[in-house]
Design a protein that fits this description.
Shape: globular
Number of strands: 0
Strand content: under 5%
Oligomer: single chain
Number of domains: 1
Number of helices: 3
Structural class: mainly alpha
Length: about 60
């Protein structure tokens, strides 16, 4: 799956699984960096949506066993 497909799937996961229509400030960039395999540190205030930044890539990159 290429980078564009991963980003589209991430947006789909955001809508279909978590019920949000768009990312909050900073989330999309964090998710994209993780999907691109970059080491990523996200420092955001409580309630800013850090958990989604790591949950969405985990779903998109889920490996079949």
């Amino acid at each position: 799956m290429d980078s564009i497909e991963q980003n589209l799937k991430a947006s789909d996961v955001l809508r279909q699984i978590f019920g949000f229509s768009s990312f909050r400030n900073g989330q999309e960039e964090i998710v994209k960096n993780i999907l691109d395999g970059k080491q990523t540190l996200a420092i955001m205030p409580t309630g800013a949506g850090k958990s989604l930044c790591y949950q969405i890539p985990a779903i998109v990159l889920e490996k079949k066993q």
